[in-house]
Amino acid sequence: MHGTNNHLNLYKRLLRRESSAEQAWQQVIHRFEGSPFETLALHILEDHRKSMASIRLRILQTGHQPTARADFRGNLAVHLTNAALLLGDHPLIAALCLVETDGIQEYERLLDRFDVDDPFRATISISLLPRLQNHVAALDVMVS
Length: 144
Description:
Largest sheet: none
Order of helices and strands: HHHHH
Number of helices: 5
């Protein structure tokens, strides 16, 4: 049972993180309306929603209900994005890239843990991590 609680806490933390990323992207979509970046921003927003759905499913499989309240880091991501909105496109994209990179680091740390079960390890490797890596690669192109 202890392992199940650890997994549940892990899933909830990841759901909060993805929810925060989704909130950050929702805040900036209007900024890029009509620009070439709008399509990418909408795609990234949808990817975060897909990741949230995957994590919610894992929580439901533990017999619990998913909730996605932002934690301190999540609130920080949203506030960083808000501040960058005032500074211009380049700082904004750089801030969004930091949010995505932080997520990559979290998923990579999870892959190194022995207590992450194989099905969720596969979910991280096959979909969650590659999505974020693709986001960072696309954002890097936008700022270069």
